[in-house]
Structure formats: structure tokens, C-alpha cells
Amino acid sequence: MKPLSIDLRQRIVQAYDAKEGSKQQIAQRFAVSVSSVKKLINQRDKLGTIEPQYQNVGRKPAFNNEHLQQLDELVEHQCDITLNEIKLHFAGVVNCSHQAIANALERLGWGYKKKHYEQLNRTEKM
């Protein structure tokens, strides 16, 4: 869902502060849920702002900055290392799948060159 606009947030808070009705009446007036009004008032009281807050959505990457640097150095020194070997290297430090390792390698700019090697082999055979 999209967050409420700043303008709407301001009008809700102003109506609440002016005691223009209960939270339920204010929610009906502005066509929002009662929980939205409650959350907005609580946010203002706790954080001092009514702006939308950043939502941490999704799973965190398995490799943090330090581990990414170690992974980059490992692949730099052993460019033919397999995903399984990388997983064994980081065992006990990073708990992840092969796909997580592949995603980390992609973020670092490392990729697979299968087609390139296939093309080289074809030209050498000719």
C-alpha cells in the first residue's frame, strides 16, 4: 500500500489536535482506518514527525560488507572456484545457499562466461 500523503497526514493530525471528533470519527471523515489514525498520532508523539517512515522489506543479504570484501578477494585469487567451494570456505561464518552466493558474486561484478568459453572452443576446433 502507498503511504498517506503528507497533506492528508497533516489534516488528520490537525483534526485530532483540534478535538474535532474521536479517532473513529476522524478516520471516517478522512476515509482511512482507525489504526492509521492511531499509528499516525503515536508516530508523531514518539518520533516528532508525521512523514512516512522507510520500511525494511525483504530478506537481508547473507553477505555483509566485510564478507563481500572477503568473497571478492577469494574469487580474485581463485577465479575458478565453485559455488560449493565458496560455501565451504564461509561455513560457520555465513549461512547461505548457492543462490545467495551467486547473488553476492553478481553484486560484486563477477559473472559466468560459459558462452564465451564455448565460443573459444568452437573457434579453436575449426
Topology, element by element:
Blueprint: H1 6-17, H2 23-30, H3 34-47, H4 65-77, H5 83-89, H6 98-108, H7 114-125
Helix pairs in contact: 1-2, 2-3
Q: Can you walk through the features of this model?
A:
This protein is mostly helical and 126 residues long. The protein has two domains: 6-47; 65-125, no CATH class. It is 61% helix and 0% strand. The protein is built from seven helices and no strands. It has helices spanning 6-17, 23-30, 34-47, 65-77, 83-89, 98-108, 114-125. Helix 1 runs antiparallel to helix 2 (23-30) and helix 2 (23-30) packs across helix 3. The longest helix is centred in the N-terminal third of the chain and has 14 residues, at 34-47. It is rod-shaped, with a radius of gyration of 26 Å. The model is unreliable at 116-120 (pLDDT under 50).
What is the terminal separation in angstroms?
Answer: 58 Å
| Number of separate domains | 2
**What value does the average pLDDT take?**
87
- Helical percent range? 55-70%
Profile the largest sheet: none
Structural class of the secondary structure composition?
mainly alpha
β-sheet strand percentage = under 5%
| Tally of DSSP helical segments | 7
The total strand number stands at 0
Silhouette: rod-shaped
Oligomer: single chain
Gyration radius over CA? 26 Å
